[in-house]
Amino acid sequence: MQSDQSNRSVVQTIQRLAAEYAADVVAVRHHLHAHPELSFQETETVAFVAQELRKLGLDPRPVAGTGLVALIEGRPGGPAVALRADLDALPIQELNDVAYKSQTPGVMHACGHDVHTASLLGAARILVALKDEFRGTVKLLFQPGEERLPGGASLMIKEGVLENPAPRSVLGQHVFPQLPAGKIGLRPGRYMASTDELYLTIKGQGGHGAMPEQNLDPVLVAAHIIVAAQQIVSRRANPKIPSVLSFGKVVANGATNVIPNEVYLEGTFRTLNEEWRNEAHGHLRRLCEGLAASMGAVCELEIRRGYPYLENEPALTARTRAAAEEYLGLENVVELDQWMAAEDFAYFSQAAPACFYRLGTRAEDGRFASSVHTPTFDIDEKALAVGPGLMAWLAVRELQAQAAQ
Q1: What is the CATH classification number for the domain harbouring 296?
Q2: Which three-class secondary structure state does DSSP give residue 322?
Q3: Which of 13, 177, 247, 367 could form a Cys-Cys staple with 363, CB 3.0–4.6 A?
Q4: Catalytic residue positions?
Q5: Quick one: CA torsion of 305, 309, 313, 314, rounded to 10 degrees?
Q6: Within this chain, do residues 92 and 21 fall inside the same structural domain, yes or no?
Q7: What is the pTM of this model?
Q8: What is the pLDDT of residues 181-224, one digit of tens each?
Q9: What is the pLDDT of residue 2?
């Protein structure tokens, strides 16, 4: 393990380089933001990233279709760690009036993946400049398709990105408009939820709304299912296990005086426990099919299994917190609550020790507070003076810690 004085010198060097490269990182982010691409369609994005990596003397190779992996080799004989960023955008029409506004109608970097990719490119530039200062390998993972099942992380893992060399730790960051720029947040243990998509079709017999006795009303059946299904969370789940069941789409294409033949519903189920997740699927299927049958209808339920829950390995997260405090100061590192949103970084967390932390992006005066996945999401770009340098330092510090074990 290097001395505190030596590490302080490395921190200062990284902070100097991060400040020196900040304008370039902002320019990269503007380019990415202006040219968003949807999940698994990131062809121009990945070509741009590959070009930037080659400028650094790196040799990126394709993975999972529109993803990339590249290695930064420090001094020989050390372990490997991985840093991950995602590439894809969302099907949202941007409403921000900025010079770097999306030029692709109906597509927007509304979840900050442009920030993640620009930060990782900035971190790569810093690490290349410092590769004589650390022993081991930093593996850069530029991942496609975070926003769409089956998730690009799962495909990258299947194609071997966690092998040759196998990283002992995987680190990822995500924008967080609830925190001001200059701060980060993290949480050890179970942090984000699994996510499953629910698709229900309830079939009855439609007809005239004034003669319900001649019909079998699927709207009424759907209403009973929506209400009754909540007992799976309120009465079947252990109260100590966070669970969410929500229906966000109901299509009953009748009229004021027309009962339709069928009703279509879409929803989501989320939790932080895989055993309960599997059990809840069975409860939900029996309830939907059984309740519909008891009312004379038929319910067809499709459960599309999504991402697992995200686990921040406690020891790694403690090391990440300590390293972040060294880089940012104790007051700028905060503890987060559990979050019932989902992230396919969870696949990395199920395959290797992982830590997923949040990068503050809100301005101190309250600007840039729009949530992710909204058409007005944007960031205080002071965060881009923090994200790249912090990622670089976390990688160096984790290589030191792994080498000492």
Answers
A1: 3.30.70.360
A2: helix
A3: 367
A4: 88, 146
A5: -160
A6: yes
A7: 0.93
A8: 999 999 999 999 999 999 999 999 999 999 999 999 999 999 99
A9: 62
In this prediction, residues 382-402 reach a mean pLDDT of 97
Instruction: Note whether 73 and 182 are same-domain residues.
Output: yes
Alpha carbons 51 and 195: distance in angstroms, whole number: 35
Closest CA to 130 of 75, 85, 52, 49: 75
Q: For residues 117 and 175, what is the distance between their CA atoms, to the nearest angstrom?
A: 11
> Do both 135 and 251 map to the same domain?
no
Share the mean pLDDT of the chain: 97
- Paired strand residues for 90: 108
Same domain flag for 164 and 15: yes
Task: Identify the residue whose tokens are 């593996």.
Answer: 139
Which residue from 190, 180, 122 is spatially nearest to 359, judged by alpha carbons?
Answer: 180
Residues recorded for the chain = 405
What does the alpha-carbon distance between residue 149 and residue 54 come to, in Å, rounded to a whole number? 30
End-to-end CA distance of the chain: 10
Whole domain around residue 145: which residue ranges?
A: 4-192+309-404
| CA angle, 16 then 22 then 27, to 5° | 160
- Locate tokens 């990105």: which residue? 161
Q: How many structural domains comprise the chain?
A: 2
Indicate whether 142 and 250 sit together in one domain: no
Q: What is the pLDDT of residues 237-268, one digit of tens each?
A: 999 999 999 999 999 999 999 999 999 999 99
